Amino acid sequence: MTADWDHARAVADAVLYEGYLLYPYRATSSKNQSRWQFGVLSPIGASEAGIGEESTLSAQVLIASRGITMVTGVVRFLHLQHRGVERDLGDGRFEPVDELVSDAGCWLCWDEAVECEVPIDPLPVMSLPATLNISVAPTTEVELVPGGRLVRTRRPLRGRVDISADDDDGLLRLTIDVRNTAPPTGDKDEAIARSMIGTHLLLEVADGEFVSLLEPPDRAADAAARCRQHRCFPVLAGPSPHRDLMLASPIILYDHPEIAEQSQGALYDSTEIDEILTLRIMTMTDGEKAQARATDPRAAAIIDRCDSLSPEAMLDLHGVLRDPHAPAGLIPEIPDGVGWWDPTADAAVRPHSDAVLVNETRVARGSRVRLHPSRRADAQDVFYANKIARVTSVHEDVDGEQHIGVVLEEDPAADLHDWYGRYLYFAPDEVEPVVEGSSQWK
């Protein structure tokens, strides 16, 4: 397994467990009554019966072949595991209960999940189509605990993966269909127990490379537009600029997604910001934390990790710290090949110290400029014509357009506007630097 594969799997793991646990992690939380949110492939007919999701997902990706192209990969998903709790009555008899409490701990009835990974062995693209069957046997496991036992059960799973390839404008279009083939059920609990949860694909190509579907090269744009996806979102995986890995995710991602280096570990709660969620966890009472620990070992790990978080680690979660005394440059200062959506781009932008050149004069925060509104849509801008303003920030948007934030010098509330960030914005060609001592300003 290569370092690139490990890099991609780290993101795939985050996708697999997204939504697995939801803050405040307690079993009584209404959010945790329906935790399985992404990539659920239910048994046949569950969606139509209103007791589950659709049974299929489908991805189409493009490959630029360089020889005898081979494809390999894995289908990954979670399998629901119900944990029943039983009290020891003695004489080998046990009684099912909702909660078991002893001096050694507390256990609740809970739906856990275990990882399942079905390998796609190396396939020459020219040998396709191919079909791979998925079969997961039912299991029952018993764990003795003080005062009783935990009984973990998993229902059987059945599925199928169909892989085919077609030529498309000089490229290979690979189609992968993943289907849950379990027979219909009439019960919602039985449907999720027989579902493939968080389903996604991680694919690798040899003697070829995947084509970005988000930013295809011009020659592949039409073929990329013809690709169809159903309940998944394929993106280039692994570190940029490598193109040998593709992740078909049930949630929207960008090409070459990464786990933030500041992250201290998975929190599972979808869409939450690590810092905010960590602070919330730290404010939970001891009783609430005990209830969370009683649900799932992963919840217990979250509580323990947040309780032991160092001040330095907490500061890392707050964002990227920059030296305010570092020399300022012109914008953009983004490394070549880095898109605006990449966290590296955020780290390179410093609106309060970046600058632009206007008439060969460097304009940055603190510069004085005369305003010449010309193309903006705001009718009030005409009232600012020939006014002197103080520059507060310099920005560049995702289209590469530059914007200069200012406050009017004659505005008695200028300092207040600067304090809470209420600026007027103009393009560089709408401002004229004030050159101190020049006769034009006498």
From TrEMBL:
Name of the protein in question: Uncharacterized protein
